[in-house]
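hey so i finally got around to running both of the ones u sent me last week. sorry it took forever, my laptop kept dying halfway thru and i had to restart like 3 times lol. anyway pasting them below in the order u listed, first the sequence line then the structure token line for each. didnt double check formatting much so if smth looks off just lmk and ill redo it

first one:
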Amino acid sequence: MEQDQLLKQITDTVRACGEIILHADRSRSCIDEKAGHANFVTTYDRKVQQELQERLLRILPEAVFVGEEEDIHASIAEGYAFIVDPIDGTTNFIKDYHMSAISVGLALDGERYMGVVYNPYLNEMFTAVKGQGACLNGAPIHVSSEPLCNGVVLFGTAPYYEELNRKSFEMAYDYFRKALDVRRSGSAALDLCSVAAGRAEVFFELRLCPWDFAAGSLIVEEAGGKVTTAEGGALTLDKPCSMLATNGCEQGI
């Protein structure tokens, strides 16, 4: 299947699943807690994931599917693998705070190949294909060229990992002193896309799972940005890691 056709089928699927989020009945959301502080899953996380799994595997039957709401995850080392967060920003979704997204990364032989992040509330569809650039609703996007002193820093608090909470806020304070301001949205996928679109200069979080960043990190890179772990290492799609995404300017603190 050609790249353009594959990307269109994936984005059409994601857009259709976004309708489930937009028309959710929160009185029937049936919230469950997972391991970690404030780590929730709703019936809609599961519903969206099931719909994504069925539709995406019809597009690429040979692919494996790695979803956040699964207990056992398949190997992504060979062939195609969808790495999916059905609702990134579940707490936002529960609170009807419109910063949630569907995130679909497609890996090929263990490497990030395509990324799709969709905020249905704003109808913003971020996409990227390895080596082909990044787009927002079909129009090319690029990271900003501003230095940190003229920049906005986005961050995640690693809320599920209490041992990282204080360090997260200490880092945010250090950035706050050298940037224009800091922001906390509650969706790593959307924060990464904000860096890609030039709306912010830096995003960091001290622990994320692959489904949180498989799509968004590629979108940042294809928009001209730089993505590493917070320690400066390479990202891994087979286990959690820290994340630092920048516009590529020197943003050290």
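and the second one:
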Amino acid sequence: MVSLLITLLLFLHLNGIEESPMLYRYNIQNKNVSSTELPKALKEISGMAVTKDGRVFAHNDERAVICQVDVNSGEIIKSFSVGKKALRGDFEDIAIVDKKFYLITSDGYLIEFTEGRDKSSVDYKRYETGLSASYNIEGMCYDDETNSLILACKDYPGNGYNGYRTCYSFSLASNKLDKKPKFVLPIKYITGKIGIKDFKPSGISKNPASGSFFIISANDNGIIEVSPDGKVIAQSKLPKHIHEQPEGIAFLPDKTLLISDEGKTVGSITKYPLGK
């Protein structure tokens, strides 16, 4: 029995899966947390993603203009547009997979492109995910284990999933959606644990230290951690005085958690270092 337990723990360790939740190792309630204000161009910051070498890219929700941001100063290092006149749409999140960038719209269109130079424009490809506007996709992240993009739905969960929030998997190998949800998240369980009225995903990111997924909700300021097999293993409420409207989430290579907020006057990015 002991040897079986050791084997299981070794398997979890080798596969990057922590035996305990990672969320609680980030001091979400830290009153001295570091927040950086962003320029007006990112007042309505909607999504955020990080390259392997630690560069942070973000966008707002109306035009496909991608900004590289210094998370310490808030300065925009460079920006480039997707399409010669910058595509317009309800862009909700961004993901980076090696040299490819992806934008997702709330009505299910996926835009693929590559990084551009400052003040340049880049060509793009467009794919239909098969998720209509009623699903209201708000979050997207890359899952390296399945080579797919995980799409978090804010509203309609799919037929037969009333009372739940769902996330779907879009394969980058076949450019097709798995019609069965990857995650089926019980709303009442989450809201009961956090003490909020509703949980509507606005951003999702995979934690590189654990392989689990962190999902935020701008509605009522919730954050949860979901295991690779879809179990809600941790949850917390984000402090309202810091997070006005949490829309984006990402991790730096050193495992620091980033959360971006849309603001009434300016947007912001807040950093939570990984604790012991």
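quick thing i noticed on the 2nd:
The chain is about 10% helix and 40% strand.
anyway thats it, ttyl
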